[in-house]
């Protein structure tokens, strides 16, 4: 608390670069933020936003570049250094210990309450009271964290950061887990706080960016691609900059198809891992030979939707009907046999067994089917031939089919998954973020394959955040928000702007 | 009546080793480290508890401070092994279960080797004897059960509130709980996760070593390589059973020791009973049953148990 | 070579690991008052003194191979079986009981029946922790250890009451707890007359082939390996992970049971106290040392056979106690698991590259 009086009037990042093995997370980033400013840091997943903020917090060390506070260079080696400078951060995954009370969680960071033999909880209690009164943030100091709702936990995080003396706040996707009401409250609160503090907040909800920030910076692939004043740019411009790829990818030019219903979902309710309703009476339908795109900001129920269709997550209400049979809560194996293919979001940990060879990964779903197996014995020769054939047809670049799948690049891993899923001849395919993080060549290849699949009469549910991908491929695009379908648009009606607005949770454009 | 009093008295006395060891293991697990090598550390501690008084005076009575030195020797050997385990599972991030087995074999092996070369065969020591606390031990029934033990037994029981205080009230205990439950949170507040875990392993190791030394000095008054006979593993299981809380762990230790004492005393009091092996099994079956039923979603336990911490590993 | 630093990294990690294991062993030998070089020499050369001593090594390798095969099946399926000790004891008890039940039957029937009995008993003892893990999430590390003690008690009981050698109590008194000699028709004959090596070695080798075929040639083995390598991906692939967990643990127990049966029918000829001593844990070490593959487990088991046999020669020729071998096994486990983690850690590798290879790389660029 020795610097209590010093205001942070200026924080400047210069040429920050940070690499992880195999990934360039931050690429020569320079940013500046002044007194009482609110900077919105916008970008897709994996754009490097969180890494950058962790560097400011002293959690990661940049490989090069420097940080200046009030014009003086600082070296932030540990979070303690950042606290001493008055910087505090509310992480996206709340940094709270669930089996401790609010009081203890805050005491954990307050070194001045650590007496030799005892934690001086009274001191903490007083500090919490002081902060809550000042900012109107009510928390129950004696509640255990696990008893609190997500919104309450976030309030604890804010109080904690303020109790530790933060005069500069970093908020990493503060609204990603909040209900609309909680979000509104938070925005009001942050606006009030921004009169005294500077704030950086990470978001990809453009509505909030417009409501709260006065400056905006857009990150893509670890680099700043745009900086400016929020007021001077429309949300749709920002959306375009955030997700835009300028390169042409294959397009779906066929007329919309009129096939039979392949997959019909009615009033589906599913709980998330955290226990709240991730899908809330969601309904949709996909025809044979149709690509239905699901657009939405991640965390609005996409994962739960894909997992409940494929039997990996239990549903708590509603029905999923595929080709006339209800399949909700059946085993994954039953659903695979029913002809539903799945290209999962986490290709490295879920789509493949990383330590197994390409050949072995190809048969993951069919190891006891007569195609690959006779009388419990695997048909090794045939499997090898088959895998070799797929390797050529799907252009999987690898030393050989006995290479461990986990050692391949992302694009090639995705091709292994795609080869397996498509060549199993599914009747329906669920496809989640298929080109996220891939280079353009691989993306183009994957899109081509999806279009071929469509042409052969297979229905595809395509979940993506990339608007270009959705607009290129889909026959119809449904926008998911808070576990419900906001609206379903035909391809011809879908524009970047209309989708962006729906994704931000606004049904009626006039609200903007 | 005599039978009941004997069983209860011995339960109180014999539960001390298990109690100390499982309280130590609680510190390990609270910090997120699953130390299955407790058995090996206890064995090493037991050996030190034998070695020091024996090399001073063999089976003859030794001054109390020598016995105390034996206890401290056990404690020190526990710290060394605990920190060594830390090197393997914290710094090298090796899987804790299998590494624990390695530590167990290492501890038992070293103790056995050194025992054979420095002591040779079965030898006894005078050890620390029990004494009756004046007045209190005169109380009928209760006096015999509670007040006729050696000082270490009382210390063991005093450790229960002490451990409780340390883990729940002191800054260090708070940090231990935080790194064992949400190491990222602790890290984000500038707490050095691995350092706290090393400290917890040293504490847990010290207590396991002390528990081992207690076994030789206060209980068996001799040493052999099988002296621990699974107490280390049971200590680990008791921590689960006790939901990482000292008072519940004490209850578990007493329950287990009671089952074991009961079984040995039945053999003594009812020599005609033929099926005593089945009684011997009971404590172990009890542990399994308890593990199976105490599976409730443990919101209060260290949820990062067994997971190495790596700040830069993205989730 | 763009990636030559990776190879250098791995080689140096392994070399450092082997050196530190030898160093730790040496320290212990010195502490025990032995001569380091002599001790290591006796451990290594002891078995090669004569053909008979080498057979002693192979004799010890038999149960090690069988148990390690079982452990590897479970380990590859994602569950660590440290309960082989207990499963083996149950196998011995069951095989012994069966041996007396089939007294007089032809050898070709009696021996398989005894082995089957041992296998079944071991399988049950593996099934329990498998089920507890799959359904109730009980840590297999704890449940198998507890079941070891339960099995040990049950085994003692069997030796003392139902299987007790009548000759031991004929003269009154309690006698030594052990079974009578097994009937001749259930004894595995020696491979070479005049040595201790019995036909169990063929059983062990056959089981190695069976495990290889099961794990690498059949769809069930494929599914077990997939479940163990990534339970998440296996579930995604429609594999019933919990089911294969139980199956693999039962197989693992069955193998330990067979090891028990073979040990009693080949080596000892009667059920005694202490037959299982240490084989359960050593089996885990052998499985890891043999890279969880039959082709690695057989040589690893022979190596550990040498180590176990050295307990005898150490006692004969040095002052170093045989318990040293247990400690060495502990060191070996710790070294293996650490090396695996260090080799797979990209951050440490990166640091290694920066420290030793950055200059050459700059020069190349």
Q: Would you write up a description of this structure?
A:
The complex is a heterotrimer of chains A (512), B (315) and C (365). With 512 residues, chain A is α/β, with parallel strands linked by helices. Chain A has helices at residues 49-56, 79-84, 102-107, 121-135, 150-163, 180-193, 206-212, 235-243, 302-309, 332-337, 347-351, 358-362, 380-393, 410-423, 440-455, 467-473, 496-503; strands at residues 10-20, 23-34, 38-43, 64-69, 72-74, 87-90, 168-172, 198-203, 215-220, 223-229, 261-271, 277-287, 291-295, 317-322, 325-326, 340-343, 373-374, 377-378, 428-432, 459-464, 476-481, 484-490. Chain A has three domains: 10-243, 3-Layer(aba) Sandwich (Rossmann fold), CATH 3.40.50.300; 247-339 and 426-512, Rossmann fold (3-Layer(aba) Sandwich); 351-425, no CATH class. In chain A, the strands form five sheets. Chain A has a six-stranded mixed β-sheet, sandwiched between helices. In chain A, a hairpin with a 2-residue loop joins strand 21 and strand 22. Chain B is mainly α and 315 residues long. Chain B has one domain (2-127, 142-293): ABC transporter involved in vitamin B12 uptake, BtuC, CATH 1.10.3470. Chain B is built from twelve helices and no strands. In chain B, helix 3 (64-91) runs antiparallel to helix 4 (96-118) and helix 10 packs parallel to helix 12. The radius of gyration of chain B is 20 Å and the shape is globular. In chain B, 56% of the residues are buried. The model of chain B has no long low-confidence stretch (mean pLDDT 87). By secondary structure, chain C is mostly helical. Chain C has a domain at 63-299. Chain C is built from 15 helices and no strands. The two termini of chain C are 13 Å apart. The model of chain C is unreliable at 361-365 (pLDDT under 50). Chains in contact: A-B, A-C, B-C. Chains B and C meet through helix 4, helix 10 and helix 12 of B and helix 6, helix 12 and helix 14 of C.
H/I helix tally of chain C: 15
Alpha-beta classification of chain C: mainly alpha
Query: What's the order of the H and E elements of chain C?
Result: HHHHHHHHHHHHHHH
Q: What ranges of chain C have pLDDT less than 50 throughout 5 or more consecutive residues?
A: 361-365
Rounded to the nearest angstrom, the distance between the terminal CA atoms of chain C is 13 Å
């Amino acid at each position: 608390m020795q610097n209590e009086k010093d205001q942070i009037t200026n924080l400047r990042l210069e040429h920050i670069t940070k690499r992880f093995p195999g990934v360039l997370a931050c690429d020569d980033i320079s940013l500046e933020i002044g007194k009482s400013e609110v900077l919105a840091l916008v970008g897709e997943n994996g754009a490097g936003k969180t890494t950058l903020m962790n560097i400011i917090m002293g959690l990661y060390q940049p490989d090069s570049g420097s940080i200046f506070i009030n014009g003086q260079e600082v070296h932030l080696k540990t979070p303690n250094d950042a606290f001493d400078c008055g910087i505090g951060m509310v992480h996206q995954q709340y940094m709270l210990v669930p089996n401790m009370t609010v009081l203890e969680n805050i005491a954990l960071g307050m070194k001045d309450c650590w007496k030799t033999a005892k934690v001086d909880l009274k001191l903490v209690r007083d500090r919490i009271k002081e902060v809550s009164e000042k900012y109107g943030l009510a928390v129950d100091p004696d509640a255990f964290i696990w008893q609190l709702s997500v919104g309450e936990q976030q309030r604890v995080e804010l109080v904690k950061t303020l109790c530790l003396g933060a005069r500069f706040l970093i908020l990493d996707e503060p609204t990603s887990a909040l209900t609309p009401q909680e979000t509104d409250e938070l925005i009001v609160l942050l606006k009030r706080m921004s009169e005294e503090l500077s704030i950086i907040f990470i978001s990809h909800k453009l509505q909030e960016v417009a409501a709260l920030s006065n400056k905006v910076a857009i990150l893509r692939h670890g680099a700043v691609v745009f900086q400016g004043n929020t007021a001077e740019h429309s949300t749709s411009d920002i959306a375009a900059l955030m997700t835009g790829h300028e390169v042409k990818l294959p397009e779906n030019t066929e007329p919309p198809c009129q096939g039979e219903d392949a997959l019909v979902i009615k009033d589906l309710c599913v709980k998330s891992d955290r226990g709240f309703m991730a899908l809330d009476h969601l309904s949709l339908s996909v025809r044979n030979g149709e690509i239905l795109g699901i657009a939405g900001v991640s965390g609005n129920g996409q994962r739960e939707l894909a997992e409940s269709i494929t039997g990996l997550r239990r549903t708590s209400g509603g029905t999923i009907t595929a080709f006339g049979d209800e399949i909700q809560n059946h085993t994954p194996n039953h659903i695979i046999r029913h002809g539903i293919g799945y290209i999962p979001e986490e290709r490295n940990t879920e789509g493949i067994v990383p330590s197994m060879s390409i050949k072995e990964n190809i048969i993951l779903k069919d190891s006891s089917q007569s195609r690959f197996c006779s009388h419990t014995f695997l048909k090794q020769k045939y499997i090898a031939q088959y895998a070799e054939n797929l390797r050529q047809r799907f252009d999987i670049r690898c030393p050989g089919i006995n290479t461990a799948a986990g050692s391949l690049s992302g694009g090639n891993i995705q091709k292994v998954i795609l080869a397996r899923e498509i060549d199993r001849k599914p009747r329906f395919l669920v496809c989640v973020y298929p080109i996220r993080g891939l280079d353009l060549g691989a993306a183009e290849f994957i899109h081509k394959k999806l279009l071929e699949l469509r042409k052969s009469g297979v229905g595809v549910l395509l979940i993506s955040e990339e608007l270009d991908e959705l607009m290129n491929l889909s026959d119809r695009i449904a926008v998911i928000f808070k576990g419900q379908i906001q609206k379903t648009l035909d391809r011809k009606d879908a524009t970047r702007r209309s989708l962006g607005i729906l994704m931000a949770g606004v049904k009626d454009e006039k609200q903007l | 009546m005599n039978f009941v009093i004997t069983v209860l008295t011995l339960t109180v006395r014999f539960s001390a080793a298990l109690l100390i060891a499982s309280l130590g293991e609680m510190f390990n697990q609270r910090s997120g480290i699953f130390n299955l090598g407790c058995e090996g550390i206890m064995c090493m501690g037991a050996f030190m508890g034998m070695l020091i008084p024996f090399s001073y005076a063999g089976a003859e009575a030794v001054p109390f401070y020598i016995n105390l030195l034996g206890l401290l020797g056990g404690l020190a050997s526990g710290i060394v092994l605990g920190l060594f385990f830390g090197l393997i599972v914290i710094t090298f991030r090796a899987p804790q279960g299998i590494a624990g087995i390695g530590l167990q074999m290492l501890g038992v092996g070293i103790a056995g080797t050194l025992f054979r070369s420095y002591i040779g065969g079965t030898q006894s020591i005078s050890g620390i004897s029990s004494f009756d606390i004046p007045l209190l031990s005169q109380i009928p029934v209760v006096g015999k059960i509670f007040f006729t033990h050696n000082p270490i037994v009382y210390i063991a029981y005093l450790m229960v509130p002490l451990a409780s205080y340390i883990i729940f009230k002191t800054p260090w205990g708070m940090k231990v709980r935080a790194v064992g439950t949400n190491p990222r949170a602790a890290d984000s507040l500038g707490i050095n996760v691995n350092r706290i875990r090393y400290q917890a392993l040293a504490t847990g190791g010290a207590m396991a070593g002390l528990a081992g030394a207690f076994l030789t000095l206060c209980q068996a008054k001799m040493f052999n390589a099988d002296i621990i006979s699974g107490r280390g593993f049971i200590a680990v299981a008791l921590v689960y059973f006790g939901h990482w809380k000292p008072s519940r762990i004490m209850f578990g230790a007493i329950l287990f020791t009671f089952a074991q004492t009961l079984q040995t005393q039945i053999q003594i009091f009812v020599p005609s009973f033929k099926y005593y092996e089945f009684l011997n099994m009971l404590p172990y079956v009890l542990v399994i049953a308890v593990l199976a039923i105490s599976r409730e979603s443990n919101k209060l336990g260290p949820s990062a148990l067994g997971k190495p911490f790596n700040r830069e590993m993205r989730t | 070579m763009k990636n030559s630093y990776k190879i250098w990294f791995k080689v140096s990690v392994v070399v450092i690991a082997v050196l530190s294991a030898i160093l730790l062993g040496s320290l212990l030998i010195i502490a025990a008052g032995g001569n380091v070089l002599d001790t290591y020499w006796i451990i290594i050369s002891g078995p090669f003194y004569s053909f008979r001593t080498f057979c002693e090594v192979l004799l010890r390798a038999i149960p090690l191979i069988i148990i390690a095969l079982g452990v590897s099946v479970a380990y590859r399926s994602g569950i660590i079986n440290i309960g082989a000790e207990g499963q083996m004891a149950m196998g011995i008890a069951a095989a012994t009981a069966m041996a007396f039940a089939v007294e007089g039957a032809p050898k070709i029937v009696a021996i398989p029946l005894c082995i089957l009995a041992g296998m079944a008993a071991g399988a049950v003892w593996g099934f329990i922790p498998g089920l507890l893990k799959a359904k109730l999430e009980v840590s297999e590390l704890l449940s198998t250890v507890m079941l070891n003690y339960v099995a040990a008690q049950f085994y003692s009981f069997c030796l003392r009451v139902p299987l007790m050698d009548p000759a031991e109590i004929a003269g009154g008194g309690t006698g030594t707890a052990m079974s009578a000699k097994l009937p001749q028709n259930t004894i595995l004959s020696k491979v070479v007359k005049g040595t201790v090596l019995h036909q169990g070695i063929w059983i062990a080798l056959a089981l190695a082939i069976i495990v290889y075929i099961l794990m690498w040639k059949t769809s069930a083995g494929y599914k077990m390996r997939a479940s163990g390598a990534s339970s998440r991906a296996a579930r995604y692939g429609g594999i019933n992970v919990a089911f294969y967990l139980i199956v693999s643990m039962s197989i693992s127990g069955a193998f330990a049971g067979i090891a028990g049966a073979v040990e009693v029918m080949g080596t000892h000829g009667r059920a005694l106290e202490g037959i299982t001593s240490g084989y359960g844990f050593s089996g885990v070490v052998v499985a890891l040392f043999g890279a969880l593959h039959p082709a690695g487990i057989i040589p690893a088991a022979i190596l550990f056979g040498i180590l176990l046999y050295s307990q005898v020669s150490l006692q004969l020729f040095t002052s170093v106690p045989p318990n040293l071998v247990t400690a060495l096994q502990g060191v070996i486990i710790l070294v293996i698991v650490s090396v695996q983690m260090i080799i797979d850690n990209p951050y440490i590798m990166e640091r290694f590259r920066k420290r030793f290879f950055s200059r050459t790389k700059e020069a190349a660029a």
